[in-house]
What does this fold into?
Amino acid sequence: MIEARALAYDYSGEEEPSSPALSGINLDVHRGEYLALIGPNGSGKTTLLKLLNALLTPSNGEVRVEGISTVDEERTPQIHRICGMIFQNPDNQLVATTVEEDIAFGLENLALPSAEIRQRVADVARLLGLDHLLQKPPHLLSGGEKQRVAIAGVLAMQPGCILMDEPTAMLDPAGRHDVIETVRMLNRNQDIAVVHVTHFPEEAAYADRVIVLDQGRLVRQGPPAEVLNDLQLLHSLGLQGTAAIELAALLREDGFILPPQLLHCRELVNSLCSLERKS
Amino acid sequence: MFIGTEKLTHTYMPGTPFAAEALKEVSFSISQGEFSLVIGPSGSGKSTLIQHLNGLLRPTSGRVFFEGKVIGFDKGELLRLRRRIGLVFQMPEEQFFSETVYDEVAFAPRNLGLDESNVRAGVKDALEKVGLNAEHIQSRHPFQLSAGQKRLVALAAVLSLQPEVLILDEPTAGLDPAGRRNLFNLLDKLNSTAGLTVLICTHHLDEAAALADNVLVLHDGKLVLAGPAEEIFARRDQLCDLGLTLPAVTEIMHGLAEKELPVRTNIYTLDGARKEINKLKGRREK
It folds into this structure.
C-alpha cells in the first residue's frame, strides 16, 4: 500500500552541512500491517513518517501511496486521505471547539453532504468510545482522550493507513494503554495499516514488523521477537529490548535455560515457573 | 519541613463559570536532600502542585513552605525563592529563544546582573554538571542539537543559578531510552553527590522508581497516597485502580509471586530482579 524506493532526504538550508536525514530507504507497508519504527532521537523516524504521507517530498528516490507518487501535488489530498497522521502532542492537532466538530473537520473539507458527515462522526465516535464526549471542548479532555479524538478524526476519513509519531509520549499509563488498544483494535478489525514511531519497546513488541533506523538508514527489520532480541544492535544504538527481554538476557548469562525469542513479561514468568517446576 | 504544603487548594478561574478546583487541601512535606516523585494520571494536579513550590502560582487557600517558613510573594522574596528552587517545565526546549547554547544558559545569571566573567564561569559549570562539553557546544544553535542534548541544555539553564532544589515536570517525555537513562542517572548524581533536593513529576516509573525516596500520588486534585517509595509501590492494587502502573520489572516479580515462587516483589531494577531470581537457583541447589 506504501512503497518507498531508494528514499533520501536532506534538510537543506542548514548552516552546517550535516549528514542527510535519510538515505537509501527501501520500505513497503502492506495492507493491514502493523509496523513499529524505532531508533535513537535524530535517527530520521519523524522525517520518514512525514515522507510517507507527502508532508515532505523526497530529495531522491520515490514514495508511492496506493501507486500515487508523493511528488504529484495535485493528488496530495488523496494521499492525506489514505494516510492519516497522529502527532506526539495532541494539543497541536485539535482545532475545533467541540469534539464532534473536530472529528468532522477533515470530512467538511471534503465537502461531503452533512448527513454523511454526521453518520461517519457518529460511527467512529461509537467505535472509539467517544460518544459521551462529542459535545465537550477538546481542551477539557484527558491526554488519552485527546489522542483518541485525533485518531477518530483520521478514522472518519476512512484511511488505509495511520501514521503515528510517538503518540503516547505525553500520556499517562492509562492514556497510553487506551491509545495502544484503540490502534490495535483498528488494525485487527478494520484492516488498517499502522506505522508507529515509538521509544517504548513494550509498544513495538505488539507490531507485526519492527524497523530500526540509525543515522538516516534502515539498519534492521523483522518480527519483534527477532529484532527486539538483538540486544547487541539495540544497545549499540542506545536502545533497549522489553523488560522481559533484558532480564532474560541477564538470566541466561547466569545459566537459566530460557526460550530464545521471548518478548512479553508473561512469557518470561511462565518460562521461569516451568523451570522451577521441573526441578 | 524543608519543602511542603499545608491544606493547599488551587482553583483556576475562581468565581467564573469555568472555575476548576485543581488542588484540594494538599498537605505534604519532604526533607532536604530527598528524591521524590509526584505521580498521578493526567489532570490530577501534578503540574499545578509543583508550580506552587517556587511561587509561580499562588494558593487559593492554604500555605506553601520552604525551609520551614511560609513563602511570601513580595518581589525580593520571590526572586530569592526562584534562585534557590529551579523549575524545569515539560518539553523545556520548546521555550528556547537564544541564538546560541551559551546565551540560553547565560540568560538567568545575566538577569541577576552578574558580570560577564561570572556569567561565563556559571555557564561552563552548569554545562559540565549536565555532562556537556562547554567548549564544543556553547557556540552552537540550540536547534542544531539532538533531543537529548536540548533537554540537557534546558536543565543547565536552570542549574546556572545553582539552585538547591530541582523540580522537573516530565523530564524524559519524548526522549529515547538512552536519553531517558542518561537524564535519570544525572538527576541521581545531582541528588546523591551534589546534595540537591529533587522532585519529579513523571509517568515513567520504569526508570524513576528505583531512585525515589518518597512518592506522592495525586488523583483528581487530592493527595491520595504519600510516603516512602517502598510503602507506596507495595500498594499495587490501589495504584492500579488509580490508572497507574508499576515498572515492568516489578510486574514480572509480581507475576512470579502470584505463581507462588518465593520472590520479593519490591524490586524496580533489572539487576535487582536478576539477583532475586538467582536466589531461586541457589535455593534449588541446596
Summary: Chain B has a mean pLDDT of 92.
